[in-house]
Amino acid sequence: MSTREELLEELLLEEVAVTQNEIVLYNDDVNTFDHVIETLMSVCDHTAEQAEQCSIIVHYKGKCTVKTGVYDDLKPRCSMLLDAGLNAEIV
């Protein structure tokens, strides 16, 4: 096995080891579409189109993954969503 193949193999193993978590947003009967969209744009760095699509998915499907990443990045974002009155959790 060449050195290049060994390095590529090690790199692939490191990428697999990084755990990706998700913030899942749940539907409720309280928040307006506008509030959800604005909150997703400010907290999760969504574009207007992304935030609108997520809000529609949440409305019709009951939940939607709105952000993925490492836990340390997601924790404060999830807290901000909760503080804004939305129902969300990290899974």
UniProtKB/TrEMBL annotation:
Domain of life according to the entry: Bacteria
Keyword hit for Phosphoprotein: no
Keyword terms: Hydrolase, Protease
Protein name listed in UniProt: ATP-dependent Clp protease adaptor ClpS
Organism the protein comes from: Snuella sedimenti
One Pfam family it belongs to: ClpS
GO BP annotations listed: protein catabolic process; proteolysis
Keyword Protease: yes
GO molecular function per UniProt: peptidase activity
Listed InterPro entries: ClpS_core, Ribosomal_bL12_C/ClpS-like
Lineage, uppermost ranks: Bacteria, Pseudomonadati, Bacteroidota, Flavobacteriia, Flavobacteriales
Residues of the Adaptor protein ClpS core domain: 22-83
